[in-house]
Amino acid sequence: MIKKSIALILIAILFVAIFFTLANDLPFGDNRTTTGVSDKYIYHGVNDTGASNLVTAIVVNYRGFDTLGEVTVLFVAATGVGAVLYNMGRPAGKKRKKTEASLIVRTGSRILFPMMLLFGAYIFVHGHLTPGGGFQGGAVIATAFLFKYVSDTRYHIDHNKFTATESVVGMTFALVGIMGLLLTGYFLFNFLPNGSPGELLSAGIIPIIYVAIGIKVGAELTGILDNMMEVEQ
Amino acid sequence: MILTIAVAILILMMMVFAVYSVETKDLLYAVVGTMAVSLIVSILFYVLQAPDVAMAEAAIGAGISTAVFVIAIKKTERYEHD
Amino acid sequence: MNFYTVLEYIGMFLVFVGALFLFLGALGIFRLPDVYNRLQAGTKATTLGAFGAIIGIGLMRPEWLPKAILIAVFILMTNPISSHALARASYRRGIKLWDRSVVDRYGPYLREKEEKEGKR
Amino acid sequence: MVNIDPTLMIGIPLFMGFLIPSVAIVWKNSPRYLAGFTILFNLIASTLLLIRSLNAPVISVLGGWQPPYGIVFVAGPLGSMLALLISSMTMLTWFYLPPHIKEGNETKFYMLFILLMAGATGMVLTGDLFNLFVFTEITSIASFSLLAYSRGKDEKEAVEATIKYMIIGSLSSAFFLIGIALLYGATGTLNMADLASKIPSANHNLVMMALAMIITGLGIEAEMFPLNGWTPDAYTGATHPVSVMFASVVVKAGFFALIRVVFLIFGAATEALQILMIFGLLTLFVGESSALRQTDLKRMLAYSSIGQMGLLLVAFSLNNQTALVGGLYAMLNHAIAKGLLFMAAGSFIFALGTRDISALNGMGKRMPVTSALFTIGAFSIMGLPFFGGFISKIVIIAGSMQAGTEGMLVAILILSASLIELVYFLRVVHRIWMREPEDDSRLKEAPFTQMFPMIVLAAFVFLMGIYPQAFFKVLIPAAQELLRGLGTMIGGA
Q: Looking at the 3D structure of chain D, how many domains does it have?
């Protein structure tokens, strides 16, 4: 009880300090584009990168290296989930019989599953044109697989194929970076032509990278789900 | 003005859900609480003109991670002990 | 009055109807007595409501019409399937019907099926 | 001479990390060799980088966007020295690995192993604050995952330690990220050199809050006192080579990131240094006195490691060149000697099957070579003459003399902490050599692949104690780099 109240008081003090500092010194919604690097992104982004979606321009082109790192973080985290679950072992007994999903759900999943995959692919293929990108598209693809798992109790992904896909697309990303280094002397340099902004085939290396990220994220999140589902069986 | 009030209400709701999901002993309800937080956050991102982030938050925060939590709770225990 | 203005008025009407149905659906979720009745309101009314609103927007902005139709078809498929799965799951978990419910066809069917499987 | 771009030291390991799982489907034993090849590449690249960076800092621009708009890698003498330390420790641990990995898991283990190295290398080389965050994430998540790969009866313990570390670690990254966001809000840039030039004119309150957040976040990685709850469990639960990696790579990279943010970005903000000094002394004493009470060999080493990190914090917060050189020397010495100690302890535990210190009675007769190596490591940490630790402590104390009366107090405290160290390490060494063993049978010494890294490390410990000038040649420019700040180095490019 005492511990809890001390913690609460500390949190309250911290909250007040942070709140007032932020409210006084970092006014919300101020126009600060002139002070930092953001004006370059905003005013030259489309010309520099050829991507009409500026968020993508920053995420994949200006700061593409961070994105390579984030993809690695997700990759490592997916492996880590596998490691923890592998060591936790299988809790013995208590194997509940799974109820088969009804006919309606099964039929619906047959029709909806490809549509969901298509939607995910749409999001990451159009990442440089419209809101969205590899991470979002990948998450949608993983949701599609989650749906498949729910609707069909016997469904399983093929681990080897998923691992192979994952590593091939991951290597694609790294290779694009290394190719940039070999061709121009800068890692992850945009060595393809920018094209005209707004078209599907534009923005240089961004579509390649986003397709790779989308597939990779989808495969990894599905892998996490699969690990969670399978630990008991 | 209306937008500001709406945002304020959303933030307030978010805080309520967050506190609820920390405090409740039923982990399934806590997961629902975090899902609600994610949903509100994604609406807020949309209002603040970051649709990319809003999509990611909706798909990952409210979709996948909720599923992962629910599966984890199903495999372990539903109620928290002291 | 040209063609697009007419379309816009039709669209407005559809959005209005859709909003009305959505409101009724929300009211139903609050007012109805048990899970199954609430699912009725939450599915039928809101599907129609969302359908109306989306198609209405599509008519108001004809360049969005194809996307709007796609979204509407998607909702038309997902919404009933998910409520069906919810209702079935809650019945199997043993959530009771409202005590003034009139008919329950699923219960006898389930018992019959269990007996059949028990014999096998 | 061949010039290898520093970005390749990240690019190649990431590429290989993605490659390993798919090759392993076809060729089961490949992960070990692929990982070894990658580490060798990094070792060569970082050696070349160190030689180059002694003349002038090596700057590599990513994606062709000039800073501050893009990300930049800056390899000064300090960064490349640490990169060399990281890759060589990883190489030696790679030799030590085989019997300690659980069968059937090699693929993922080696993958995580090289990604951990890549993350730590990125942490010491990057010149961009957000990029630093990304690499910190890679490093810490790879460490949680490696921690979960334990074997034998420690499995449950390892999972518990993993979850503990994971929760604390995600808290730390949240703090770090908020700090970065505040800094970006106050200055509008993320490049470290650009930040250093803009911070004096930025809002003071915001900057200080950001500094507090970042110190909290990175302090967890660097085992700073109130934030080190994860350490003992993590070291104990991890399989032995992973403990080595924790002590000599992960914690060092985290500590370096902390020091870099404080020194380079905030220009050795004096308020921050005062606080760091207090926390450093606390860490030193809490670590050492907890180590005194332990009966578990690895737990004792873990607490001793916390104490040493406190010593490093104190040395750096004295903020003069001598103390900085001493701190860097202690950092090197600790990485090498603690790595040696964890390896030797791992061999003991592997042979005995228990982590209890009392089981070590008479090990000098049962496993003489490993015992001798353990003793060398222990002597170096204690700071006996002719070993690396002695030089580092002498230089730190010489540095503290320059800091006036406050420095005198610090010197006395450091000396008394060394005394505690002396007590608990001598206790173990005494058991190993002086006590009669309960069971007189000779135990099998570790195989050569395990002995080799330990002998190399022991040789370095001696070298550091006998011929420190060789190391000072690198460390003095490194300390000057820290004191001068990064802003002048890139020249506002």
A: 1
Cα separation, D395 vs D393, whole angstroms: 5
Q: B68: which chain A residues are within 8 Å (Cβ-Cβ)? A: 224-225, 228
User: Rounded to 5 degrees, what are φ and ψ at A99?
Assistant: -85, 130
Asked if B23 reaches chain A (Cβ–Cβ under 8 Å), the answer is no
For chain D, residues with pLDDT lower than 50 are 486-493
The verdict on a CB contact (< 8 Å) between D71 and A63 is: yes
Inter-axis angle of helices D77-96 and D251-260, to 10 degrees? 170
Each residue's pLDDT tens digit in chain A (233 positions)? 788 889 889 888 988 888 887 777 776 666 665 567 777 788 887 777 777 888 888 888 888 888 888 888 988 888 888 777 766 655 544 455 566 778 888 888 888 889 889 988 988 888 888 887 888 888 888 888 888 888 877 777 787 888 888 888 888 888 888 888 888 878 888 777 777 777 777 777 888 888 888 898 888 888 888 877 765 54
Interchain pair A112, C85: CB under 8 A: no
Which chain A residue's Cα is nearest to D178?
A18
Adjacent-strand bridge partners of D296: D356
ipTM, 2 decimals? 0.84
Cα A161 to Cα A145: distance, rounded to the nearest angstrom: 15
Nearest to B59 among A55, A136, A229 (CB): A136
Q: Please report whether residue D381 resides in a domain.
A: yes
User: With 0-12 CB in 10 A as exposed, 13-18 as middle and 19+ as buried, what is D43?
Assistant: buried
* Distance (Å) from the alpha carbon of B55 to chain A's nearest alpha carbon: 6
D240 belongs to a structural domain:
no
What ranges do the domains of chain C cover? 3-119
The reply to whether D296 falls in a domain is: yes
| SS3 label, residue D75 | strand
HEC secondary structure over D278-325: HHHHHHHHHHHHHHHHCCEHHHHHHHHHHHHHHHHHHHHHCCCHHHHH
State how far the Cα of D389 lies from the Cα of D425, in Å rounded to an integer.
14
Contacts of C78 in chain A (CB under 8 A): 108, 112
Number of Cβ within a 10 Å radius of residue D460: 22
* DSSP, res A26: S
